[in-house]
Amino acid sequence: MGIVLTKSEAISWYRIQEMFHFHSFHMYGIIGSAVILGILLLQIMKRRAQSNFAGYAITYTEKPLRFKANFIGGVIFGLGWALTGACPGPLYTLLGNGYFSIIIVIIGALLGSFVYGMTKDRLPH
């Protein structure tokens, strides 16, 4: 995955800023193709009643739509992405490519996950 992220320039701060400024379709193309591929593969798996490696059937449960919680979480996620120039996916790829300042972002992401875990019972889920 790291090679694909690097070669597609999905870890580039400049590409991410272009996306948030609506100057380039590059990142929207990558994200959009991943969403479409995910939808297609999920539909195929549902229709074929796929099982996991242990032989157990893969089950799917519908989640209720929680607009307020998803909106607030999406805004926080997007702000962090825009401010750092890095989505959580390629953080370790950036570190592996020698961008050692990304350690600060990784620590912040881990700290944010910890704070969420401590406060999730009081959040609108």
Could you explain the architecture of this structure?
- Helix content is 63%, strand content 0%.
- With 125 residues, the protein is an all-alpha fold.
- It has one domain.
- The chain is globular.
- The two termini are 31 Å apart.
- The model has no long low-confidence stretch (mean pLDDT 86).
Radius of gyration: 17 Å
Category from helices, strands and their pairing? mainly alpha
Q: Estimate percent helicity.
A: 55-70%
Q: State the end-to-end distance.
A: 31 Å
Which outline best applies?
Answer: globular
* Average of pLDDT: 86
The ordered H/E elements are: HHHHHH
Q: What is the percentage of strand-forming residues?
A: under 5%
Question: What's the total number of strands?
Answer: 0
Low-confidence stretches: none
What's this entry about, in short?
The chain has 6 helices and no strands.
What is the secondary structure topology, with strand pairs?
Elements: H1 2-7, H2 13-20, H3 26-48, H4 67-84, H5 91-96, H6 102-119
Descriptive labels:
about 120 residues, mainly alpha, 6 helices
